[in-house]
Specification:
The complex is a heterodimer of chains A (192) and B (378).
Chain A: H1 7-20, E1 25-31, E2 42-45, E3 49-50, H2 57-72, E4 76-77, H3 80-89, H4 100-110, E5 114-128, E6 131-144, E7 150-159, H5 163-168, H6 175-190
Parallel strand pairs in A: 2-4, 2-5, 3-5
Antiparallel strand pairs in A: 1-7, 5-6, 6-7
Helix pairs in contact in A: 2-6
Chain B: H1 2-16, E1 33-36, E2 40-41, H2 49-62, E3 66-67, H3 70-79, H4 90-100, E4 104-114, E5 120-129, E6 136-145, H5 161-182, E7 198-201, E8 211-215, E9 219-220, H6 227-241, E10 245-247, H7 250-259, H8 270-280, E11 284-294, E12 304-313, E13 319-328, H9 344-360, H10 363-368
Parallel strand pairs in B: 1-3, 1-4, 2-4, 8-10, 8-11, 9-11
Antiparallel strand pairs in B: 4-5, 5-6, 7-13, 11-12, 12-13
Classes of the chains: A alpha/beta (192), B alpha/beta (378).
C-alpha cells in the first residue's frame, strides 16, 4: 500500500516524467490589436528561410502552408510563380527577410493586403537514446502591406519523441503528418 | 488432386495480377494509320526502347490498325530535323499528315524498367492526332511489379522483366483498341486514402461545357530524375479520361513555351499563364511541383510520392484548384502487406485520379465528402 504522505511525491514525479516527454511545444503568438485582420483578402507567401539540414524543408513547408491557407477559403494566396515574378520586378535582394519598404512595394505589385514570411527551424528526425521520431519547428510572420510592419507572428513545434516512442519505439509519425499538424496549428492561431 | 491445386494456384496468381482480358473488339476495315514514335525513356537507366516500340507496332497491327513503316517515319523525322519525339509539335503534325498520310501518332513513355527480382515496369502511351490541330485522343498507363500477385506458394511471381514488359504493352494496346472501338473509359472513383491531404477549390467547373487544359512542365525537386514529367503524365492520363476535359498535346505547349521564351524560376506567373493559354487556346493551365517520388527507398519498402499542384483559370486569372498530395504505398496497411501498392506508378495513378475527381465535383460536394481521414477539415 502507498502511504498518504508519499502520494504528492509520486504525483510530482509522474508530472515531471510526462512533461519531459511531451512532444508538442507551441510557441508564443503576437497579434497587433490595432490590425483589422478581416480586411485581409489576398496574401503573398514569400519563400521560407531554411535553418534545417534538409534542403527541401522550406519549400515543402511553404507548399503545405499555402495549400492549408487556401483551403480555409478565408484568404486567397497569390500563386508562387507570380510572387517570384514580383520579387524579381521589385528587385528584392533577400526575399526571405524583406525590409518594410520592400514589403510595401511587393504588396503593390501583388495587389495583396499582407505578405507572409517564415522560417523552418527544425525539420527531420530527432534521436534520443534508442528512440527516434520526426520533428518540425516553424515560425511565421505576417507583414502589413501599407507599412510593412509585423502584425502577427506565431511559432509551432510538432512531433518529437513521446512516451510511446520511448517505451515501444516505432519512429514517430510520418513527416508529412507532422508538417500538416504544425501548419494547421499556425493557421488556427491566425484565425483565432 | 495436386494437379488441381496447381491449376488453382496458377489461376489465382494470374487473376490477381490483373492480366488483361483478350480484346474482343476488332476495328473496322480501313482503320487509322498510326505512326509509332521512338519511346521516351523516363526510367533514368538503359532500357530496351526499340523492343518496346516494335512490340507496340506488332500489337497494334494484330488488332487491325495500320502502322506506318519505320523507314518512312525515319525519313520524315530526318527531313524535318525533329529531335524531340516525346510529343508532337503543330508544324510537324501537319507535315506528317501531308507527307505520310498518318492519322495519328502513338507516343510511349517508359517510366520504370527495373530488372532486379522481382522486376518492375511502368509505361505510358498516348495517341495524338496529326494535321492542323494535334489533339490527345487517348492516353493510358500501366505499372506492375513481378510480385504484385504472388499467389499461393509464389507461383504467380514473375521474374522475367520482358514478360512484364510484354504484358504492359499488351494492356495498353488493348486499352487503345477498346477506346477506338467503343469509346469506353476505364476511369472510376479512387480510394479515399489517396485523396489530396490539403485541397482548395474555388468553384466547380461548368459540367455543361468542355474545358481544355494546358499542362506546363512540373518542377522536380525530388531525387527522382524526370519526376516532373512522370507526375504530369499521370495528371494528363486522368484529366483526358474525364468526359468534359480536353488536354492540349504537351508537344504543342512545349513549342509555345520555347517560342515565347518562357522560363519559369519558381512556378508559373499570371502573365505566362495568359501567354500560354492564349497561344494554345485553352481555359486552364496546370502547374505543379514534385517534392518526392521514390520507387522503393529500401528493399521491401513502399513507394513514396509527394507533390503539389494548382490550376489557374484564363478567365479570372486566379487559382481555381490547388492541392497537396502525399502518400506511401503502405499507407493503412496493417496485416501481411494486404492492400500495399508495390509501384509508385500504381500509387500516383490513384492519387491523380482522386485529384481529377475532386476537380470535377462542386466545392460543396467536395466539402461534404471530406469525411475521409487524411483530408483536412476546415
Amino acid at each position: 500500500m502507498i502511504r498518504a504522505t508519499s502520494r504528492p511525491v509520486l504525483w510530482v514525479l509522474a508530472l515531471a516524467v510526462l512533461t519531459s516527454c511531451g512532444p508538442v511545444v507551441t510557441g508564443p503568438v503576437f497579434r497587433d490589436p490595432n490590425m483589422d485582420f478581416g480586411a485581409i483578402q489576398t496574401v503573398g507567401v514569400l519563400p521560407f528561410q531554411n535553418l534545417s539540414r534538409d534542403n527541401l524543408a522550406a519549400e515543402r513547408v511553404r507548399d503545405v502552408f499555402i495549400n492549408g491557407l487556401l483551403s480555409t477559403g478565408a484568404v486567397y494566396v497569390v500563386p508562387v510563380g507570380e510572387v517570384a515574378r514580383a520579387v524579381a520586378r521589385a528587385e528584392i535582394q533577400s526575399p526571405i527577410a524583406p525590409s518594410p519598404e520592400e514589403v510595401v512595394k511587393l504588396s503593390g505589385l501583388l495587389k495583396a493586403q499582407a505578405i507572409i514570411t517564415g522560417a523552418v527551424r527544425e525539420y527531420g528526425e530527432v534521436r534520443s537514446g534508442a528512440s527516434s521520431a520526426n520533428l518540425i519547428s516553424v515560425s511565421v510572420q505576417m507583414l502589413e502591406a501599407q507599412t510593412g510592419r509585423v502584425v502577427w507572428t506565431a511559432t509551432s513545434t510538432r512531433g518529437g519523441i513521446d512516451v510511446w516512442d520511448r517505451l515501444f519505439g516505432g519512429g514517430g509519425r510520418p513527416m508529412n503528418d507532422v508538417t500538416r499538424q504544425a501548419v494547421n496549428d499556425l493557421i488556427v492561431r491566425l484565425f483565432q | 488432386m495436386l494437379l488441381l491445386l496447381y491449376v488453382l494456384c496458377a489461376l489465382s496468381g494470374r487473376a490477381a495480377a490483373g492480366e488483361p482480358a483478350p480484346t474482343t473488339g476488332r476495328l473496322p476495315e480501313g482503320a487509322r494509320l498510326v505512326a509509332v514514335f521512338p519511346v521516351e525513356n523516363l526510367s533514368g537507366r538503359p532500357a530496351p526502347l526499340e523492343d518496346i516500340r516494335r512490340m507496340f507496332a506488332e500489337r497494334l497491327a494484330s488488332h487491325g490498325l495500320r502502322v506506318l513503316d519505320d523507314a518512312t517515319l525515319e525519313r520524315v523525322i530526318t527531313r524535318h530535323r525533329v529531335r524531340y519525339t516525346a510529343g508532337i509539335e503543330q508544324g510537324f503534325a501537319k507535315a506528317l499528315k501531308q507527307e505520310t498520310g498518318a492519322d495519328t501518332v502513338l507516343i510511349a513513355s517508359l517510366e520504370l524498367f527495373d530488372q532486379s527480382i522481382p522486376p518492375r515496369v511502368a509505361l505510358f502511351a498516348r495517341l495524338v492526332s496529326t494535321g492542323e490541330a494535334p489533339a490527345v485522343l487517348w492516353i493510358d498507363g500501366t505499372g506492375a511489379a513481378g510480385d504484385d500477385a504472388p499467389g499461393i506458394l509464389g507461383i504467380g511471381v514473375i521474374e522475367d522483366p520482358r514478360t512484364l514488359l510484354a504484358r504492359a504493352v499488351g494492356t495498353l494496346s488493348s486499352s487503345l483498341v477498346r477506346r477506338l472501338a467503343d469509346g469506353r473509359d476505364g476511369a472510376g472513383p479512387g480510394p479515399r486514402k489517396f485523396w489530396p491531404k490539403l485541397m482548395y477549390q474555388a468553384e466547380a467547373l461548368d459540367p455543361a461545357r468542355r474545358h481544355s487544359i494546358a499542362i506546363v512542365p512540373f518542377f522536380n525537386k525530388s531525387a527522382r530524375r524526370y519526376g516532373g514529367e512522370i507526375i504530369a503524365l499521370h495528371m494528363m492520363r486522368n484529366l483526358a479520361a474525364a468526359p468534359n476535359l480536353t488536354v492540349v498535346e504537351p508537344g504543342v505547349v512545349r513549342e509555345e513555351l520555347l517560342r515565347f521564351r518562357i522560363i519559369m524560376s519558381d512556378g508559373i506567373s499570371l502573365s505566362d499563364t495568359e501567354t500560354i493559354l492564349n497561344a494554345v487556346n485553352a481555359d486552364l493551365v496546370l502547374n505543379g511541383e514534385v517534392l518526392e517520388y521514390q520507387e522503393r527507398p529500401w528493399a521491401g519498402g513502399a513507394p513514396l510520392a509527394d507533390f503539389a499542384l494548382l490550376f489557374l483559370e484564363r478567365k479570372t486569372r486566379r487559382v481555381v484548384y490547388s492541392s497537396y498530395s502525399a502518400n506511401a504505398g503502405d499507407d493503412r496497411v496493417f496485416f501481411f502487406d494486404w492492400g500495399k501498392v508495390n509501384t509508385a506508378h500504381a500509387m500516383v495513378s490513384r492519387m491523380a485520379r482522386a485529384i481529377t475527381g475532386h476537380l470535377l465535383l462542386a466545392p460543396l460536394a467536395t466539402e461534404a465528402s471530406r469525411g475521409a481521414r487524411g483530408v483536412e477539415r476546415r
